[in-house]
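Objective 1.3, modelling of assemblies. Example input:
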Amino acid sequence: MSQPLLPLSIQWAVHLLTLLLLPPLIPGLINKVKAVMAGRNGPPVFQLYYDLGKLAHKRAVFSRTTTWVFLAGPIGTVAAGLVAGLLVPFGHTGTPLSFEGDVILFAYLFGLARFLTVLSALDTGSSFEGMGAAREVAFSALAEPALFLGFAALAKASSSLSLSTMLLGSGLGSGRIAGPLILVLVGWAIVFLAENARIPVDDPNTHLELTMIHEVMVLDHSGRPLALVLYGASLKLLVLGAMLMDPLLPRAPQAWQNWLIFYGGLGVLAVAVGLVESMSARFRMTKVPQFLIAGILASAFAFLLLLV
Amino acid sequence: MLDVALVLIAACCWIGASFLSLFRRLEEHWSRWLGITGALLGSLGAGHGLMNGVPSHIDFPFWHGAARLETDALSAAFLLPLHLVAGLGVVYGKEYWPLNHPRGTGRSLRFHYGVLVAAMTCLLVARHGLLFLLAWELMALSAFLLIGTDHEIPEVRRASWVYLVCTHTGTAMLTAMVILLAHRSGGLLWLPLPAGNSPTLDAWILLLAILGFGFKAGFLPLHFWLPSAHASAPSHVSAILSAVMLKMGIYGILRVSGLFPSIPPGLGAALLALGALSAVYGVGNALAQRDYKRLLAYSSIENLGIIGMGVGLGLAGRAGHDPWLVALGFGGAILHVWNHAIFKSLLFFGAGSILHATGTRDMEVLGGLASCMPRTALLMFPAVLAVSALPPFNAFLSEWFLYRGLFASLSRGYPWSAALALVALAFTGGLAAVAFAKFYGILFLGTARSPAVEHAHDPSWAMLLPMAILACLSLGTGMAGVLLLPYLDRIVAVVAPGSSAMLAQGLRGDMRLLVGAEALLVVVGLVAFLWWRRSTSSPEGESPRPPTWSCGYAVPVPRAEYTGSSFSDAWAPMQPGLRAKIRRITAIFPKPAVFRSEFRDLVGEMYLGPRMERIAMRLLRFRGLQPGYLSIYILYVLLALLGAFLWMVLRGRLLG
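Predicted structure (tokens):
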């Protein structure tokens, strides 16, 4: 462990504040990068904060078809994202909540968020939202094995089932792990793009409902529920991004340095996502499963390399 | 002594309830209350036995030897869900299948229901091969009569016959198993065996047990009787069949394997792989169904596969002398037995309420039930989350056990089967979300797709109360699972003699944190909900409710709604049983497009069905021997006697 210059309680407070306040910045950064790449000025980096503030004061409109299930999606997404954010380490800074087997809870929390979002989409009775929901569940069934095979590889490498040890364990530095680790990260990068509805799996900025996956499921939300949906999506970016970056972050002697490294890494990740989005187009819908299966294969290879 | 007596009195109560229901002069509630008393006594006996952890038994002479009835922790683990679901089923059945049912089957249903519960109770306490087989057969027959309750419908008749044939094939294997076991132990009494000198015999006994019990548990190629049987039975019967009777197969495997001092290597890994395949196959077929009760039945195959994975993991741990794996495998299996009993009976009760309200099992004509059956929709919500193994509901805990066991076995030398099972379990979780998002979304959400929904309404309290109890249990087990650990340890000690109590000390700390995280999840959800509530309590009153945004089209029609078939279209066509006929729009002046889909089970209806028909056709040849005249039959008897006589006379000469 790094020198506890900051007491543990302050570390946790910083973790909690990062988790609560930082997420809306990431989509802002990504959009800024995309705008710069396209030669535009683009919206301000803090745009999502303004949007959330505005939506919090607006009244929500509910379709006459919907029931209480419609609210379960936004609320579940935020609740699951926040709890998952307590389980994942933000760089080498310690996690508030960590136990053997938390990695399974982590994965299933995202499953819960997805399931509730799908139900809330079906609750509107709209065929577009039904279509988005069908795509979401179909693709996520492929993302799940990729995620779990990566976990299996890291669990085998670190002989632990706790997310903080698996992602930051001391065994990860050795040369034997390097190859599999790269493969796992490739697989997870694909999962990251798919789960966060980014290009090339899904285009968050498209205006054609027929081509959307995630966005079309939240078309009917407004007011505070929409604020929850947007906040939940950015939370997911932060949490899955932290999971993806953690094995790559170097360890610094001081806690504040670790925090700086983490924030820097997050910035790099946002820029990378922005660059990918600027340079590639969304796949045809039939290509998406192949992309996800590539993710499964990468994780599976990593796992096999560690088994033999 | 006390516990087993209580359980036996419970069985007598159930038998009494069956016979009381036959008397036309008695009010129905006598029989119902006797059944509920039986359920309470049975739960009390089993619960007491599990609490103080001392097995209690009665010995008595039977069939030229001693027989024993015993309740130990393992019996109690299965007696508890049995009496819970049976008791709630009686309450539910009062309204669901009234005594004066138009087709006149109310009385026979009640009679066989009581017999089924009593038979399963006896089965769970019998420690004697013959008694066990008798109870097994009684259970099989009463279940056959229950499945055929609606015997005027050809499909139901067929389902019950297929069930009868399958269960008897299984019984034949079990009879062979009991005989071999008696040969091995020198008596019909089932007591822990000493180390044997013939590993082949042990392996055969265990293999026969897995085959025979696997027929009941619905493991992969032996599952084909299950979907149509569970779909055809009345819903509270489906609940008890699926939530309890299938588990008798698991109980049998655990009981018989627990008798042996050691387990041959390889068996556990094989069962693990078989469970993994069953789970993926079951859930894959579940998402392709249009009939929501068949969907639930296929999901039972999935869950029994998951339980099978746990049992396989435990057996692999026993073969490799790894107590941690044993504890996680068997502990996870038992916990999933309980969890599945809770949420699957809830799902079948809910499905029964829908069937009761709408009269159809086709989900494509339903939809929007949440607005006309709000209470049912609310109570089914925990069930669909639980069956998809999502936190904070109960099935997540048992899958958490299994994941931990699989990860542990990966690092300890069973990598191949564990790796397969790990991927299968993750994939199953993803597909279960498809199947149950379809189940809940198509049935309850959106708008009604046909007039069948128009007059639907919530059932009365007699049907809602059992569902409410099960929904609370589902959440309660999920949040308070840490309290169950010492009891699971006791059960594991029976299944794997000689293993020490690992779960309580090994998992308590982790599970406390896990439960804490789940509680936090609920709290954060509540906070978010309250934050939303504050915005709606504005002085301007209710806001107007416009139609759903449909990309500018203001007149949404139910016909344009996404259907269940299209929802599962990404995965369903991969199921070999689904045949879809599609005529796409091709020409400039196209003919109307058509889509038709039909589902037939791969093993039962596509492979075995035609072959059985062919054999039946060949056997028709012998029909001439059955002319129907009494005199001819007397002639047959005479000829048979004459043949036997000649054989006795000539035997010495013929054989030299």
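Chain B touches chain A through 81 residues (CB under 8 Å).
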